[in-house]
Amino acid sequence: MLKGGDTNVDLQSLQNFFYSGNFIPHGHCYLWKPELVSLHILSDVLIALSYYSIPLTLVYFIRKRVDIPFKSIFLLFGAFIISCGTTHIVEVWTLWHPDYWFAGALKAVTALISFYTALTLIPLVPKALALPSPAQLETANQALMIEIIERKRVESELRKYKDHLEEIVQTRTGEWESANAQLQQEIKERQQSQDKMVGILKELRSANQELNDFAYVVSHDLKAPLRGITSLSEWLLADYGEEFDEEGKKMVNLMISRVKRLHKLIDDILQYSRVGRAKVEKKHVDLNQVVSELIEVLNIPENIKIEISNQLPTINCDKTRIGQLFQNLISNAIKFIDKPEGLVKITCVDEQEYYRFSVADNGIGIEPQHFEKIFQLFQKLTSLQDSDSTGVGLALVKKIVELHDGKIWVESEIGVGTSFIFTLKK
Known about the structure:
By secondary structure, this protein is α+β, with helices and mostly antiparallel strands. Helix content is 65%, strand content 11%. The strands form two sheets. It has a five-stranded mixed beta sheet with strand order 2-4-5-7-6. A two-stranded antiparallel ribbon has the order 1-3.
């Protein structure tokens, strides 16, 4: 705790700092002329009052605009302006009181505040420049107003659409209920149809079994007497051949030939009936192997050549059925070649989803009006007595091709030859 004497020394030092009898009041510089002194007093007072009003305005502004950026700089400006205004008050004071140390200290404080404010303001300039200008704010405001108007228009349209949508929903609900009732009725009818279909399938299975039984009966009961007739005819020729004249032998041989043709006809009919009824077992089959095996087993005359123009593909099919198809077409081609040097040509062309095959010959040819007829059951174009054609082969070929999702047709020219062309799905 300071003693009384020390306190008096400190107060005296502080008083000496702010006042010295060696200085004269500032008014002496103006020779105490009333007009000049009044001018300085009035000017300094008005400047001080103006300075003091500015911080009040800034404080009011900041309090009203809480979103204003850079609040710290506003406070620094306020402190700077107050200190500047105070220096003008001190200028009036020093007219009569020579407290120049105090005035200098106040100016020093003002200088520090001013310097700090200037340093703080410099980095804020780019940020302040980045703030939108009044023109930009006006443009943004106009754009915002346009957006608000557009949004209100859209909201109005949406309300209309909503009302319209509710009407549509009500309408669709009614339609859905009607459609649902109709669907229930269709389901009921479809169930009835399925029940009928089950009954039809049972009848078809029964009919198919009866057809199989009939085929067995035909195969067994018809072939047995035919074999007997053939054996009896051969015995007649063997035992009594010397007693027959040439005409008699010819008639017996003709009977044997007719019986063989009937036997073959039964085989062809049974074969035709089985196609489509028997289960098709598809697997990858190399057609080069199938055709090569057929060429080895077929009785091909020496004057006829079988030519495979290009490599045949491997396809997914029923090997047995495809073998029957090529066998019938090759045999049919051989049968109707009338030239000394015959040629049967087999080709294949890749056509995206299908393979297109051709079995062509240089035989007698077929007239155009018979192109469709030859694929019908029991239809044949030759009436030769020694022909062993039954009229089933090409019908069987057509059925096998269609079973493999293909098509078959014929191209021919009389005296030049015939091409049977068919497609098989890959």
